[in-house]
Amino acid sequence: MNERPVPAPRGLYLITPDEPDTARLLQRVRPVLGSATWLQYRNKTADAALRRVQAAALRELCADAGVPLIVNDDAGLAAAVGAAGVHLGEDDSDPAAARALLGAEAIVGVSCYDDAARAGRAAAAGASYVAFGAFFPTRSKSVTRRATPALLRDAAALGLPRVAIGGITPDNAGALVAAGADLLAVIGAVFDASDPAAAARALQRCFAPR
Ligand SMILES: Cc1ncc(COP(=O)(O)OP(=O)(O)O)c(N)n1
Ligand SMILES: Cc1ncsc1CCOP(=O)(O)O
Ligand SMILES: [Mg+2]
């Protein structure tokens, strides 16, 4: 048998900003998608109907670009648009239920904040990756918990990809990659940048080939 291991994902995990205009959302995502390893659709201000329209439009864009699409919060929406997976936090549904709905191949990511024990439980429940944060001050979400690079280092023992999130920029990302982050989840440093495509490239470059 000639089984090759599937390479672990590594690089920029881009997350969409709260953009109410779907055409504008696609216009903003298109120029940066080529530098993304994964894209997460996150819109905390849209209603269910708009989220359905936007997720479906992004699914098509991502399929053309060969970039896996992950839907924030809502496994049902991920299933409905044929996304690659879902990201779940403490206020969202259970990772095991999402796994049952989306299937064994789906990406089911779990927010672990600053909590190593929560990451262990997520791994046991079948998570595909664990996410820690916020590492730095962020304007994209009101956060109360601050993660440290040591969490990333210690989570290596779980054997799952480790995602870092929260205020990450090309200037502060190096320490997180050095501590073992496989993916850098970013909103503002790309979508609020004066040159989003250059910012996305700079973040992707933080991952020198191993
Ligand atoms: C990759 C990644 N990590 C963390 C989060 C945050 O999830 P959650 O705590 O559920 O908060 P909201 O994003 O739903 O506001 C994320 N979305 N993605
Ligand atoms: C969704 C989320 N969860 C923790 S921080 C954060 C926001 C990340 O956005 P930014 O990259 O702009 O700090
Ligand atoms: Mg959530």
UniProtKB/TrEMBL annotation:
Binding residues annotated for Mg(2+), in chain numbering: D73, D92
Cofactor note: Binds 1 Mg(2+) ion per subunit.
Entry similarity comment: Belongs to the thiamine-phosphate synthase family.
Keyword Transferase: yes
EC number: 2.5.1.3
Alphabetized HAMAP family for the sequence: TMP_synthase (MF_00097)
Keywords for the protein's UniProt record, in alphabetical order: Magnesium, Metal-binding, Thiamine biosynthesis, Transferase
Pfam families tied to this protein: TMP-TENI
Cofactor(s), names only, from the UniProt record: Mg(2+)
Cross-referenced NCBIfam families: thiE
Biological role stated in the UniProt entry: Condenses 4-methyl-5-(beta-hydroxyethyl)thiazole monophosphate (THZ-P) and 2-methyl-4-amino-5-hydroxymethyl pyrimidine pyrophosphate (HMP-PP) to form thiamine monophosphate (TMP).
Name the UniProt record assigns to this protein: Thiamine-phosphate synthase
Pathway(s): Cofactor biosynthesis; thiamine diphosphate biosynthesis; thiamine phosphate from 4-amino-2-methyl-5-diphosphomethylpyrimidine and 4-methyl-5-(2-phosphoethyl)-thiazole: step 1/1
Entry binding sites for 4-amino-2-methyl-5-(diphosphooxymethyl)pyrimidine: Q40, Y41, R42, N43, K44, N72, S111, K141
Alphabetized Gene3D superfamilies for the sequence: Aldolase class I
Domain Thiamine phosphate synthase/TenI: 12-190
Domain of life where this protein originates: Bacteria
Reactions listed under catalytic activity: 4-methyl-5-(2-phosphooxyethyl)-thiazole + 4-amino-2-methyl-5-(diphosphooxymethyl)pyrimidine + H(+) = thiamine phosphate + diphosphate; 2-[(2R,5Z)-2-carboxy-4-methylthiazol-5(2H)-ylidene]ethyl phosphate + 4-amino-2-methyl-5-(diphosphooxymethyl)pyrimidine + 2 H(+) = thiamine phosphate + CO2 + diphosphate; 2-(2-carboxy-4-methylthiazol-5-yl)ethyl phosphate + 4-amino-2-methyl-5-(diphosphooxymethyl)pyrimidine + 2 H(+) = thiamine phosphate + CO2 + diphosphate
